[in-house]
Design brief:
By secondary structure, the chain is mostly helical. Helix content is 76%, strand content 0%. The chain is built from four helices and no strands.
């Protein structure tokens, strides 16, 4: 992985897929979608961080707990992507299966901001 993305496992894996020697066009396109989706995740987190909420304390606690669940979900997606990329690099999985699984993980990344921050 390159130094420019060392602070993000998600971005690092997606960049590695784009730069990898075994990348087919469909995998590169999916990784590109994943990069855009990861950026939207970051923007959603920053927008929420700078939002002022005026709801009662129980509502704010519920919101925080729901976000914690979504953060765990994003971590699981990243773990799945890391496992998938490791399997691809070692030859345990072929192109069609890799691309299908990558497409599913990218779709989950794309949907994450809407689940984590309804209304943003």
């Amino acid at each position: 992985m390159t130094g420019a993305v060392r602070n993000s496992e998600l971005l690092g894996i997606l960049v590695a897929i784009v730069q990898g020697p075994q990348g087919r066009l469909q995998a590169v396109e999916l990784a590109g979608r994943g990069l855009a989706a990861a950026a939207r995740c970051d923007l959603a987190v920053m927008a929420d961080k700078h939002s002022v909420y005026t709801e009662p304390e129980p509502v704010l606690i519920e919101r925080s707990l729901a976000f914690a669940d979504r953060a765990v979900e994003l971590g699981e997606i990243i773990d799945g992507l890391a496992d998938l990329w490791r399997s691809r690099r070692t030859g345990e999985i072929g192109d069609p299966a890799f691309e299908a699984a990558l497409g599913d993980l990218v779709r989950r990344i794309e949907e994450w901001p809407g689940r984590a921050f309804p209304g943003l």
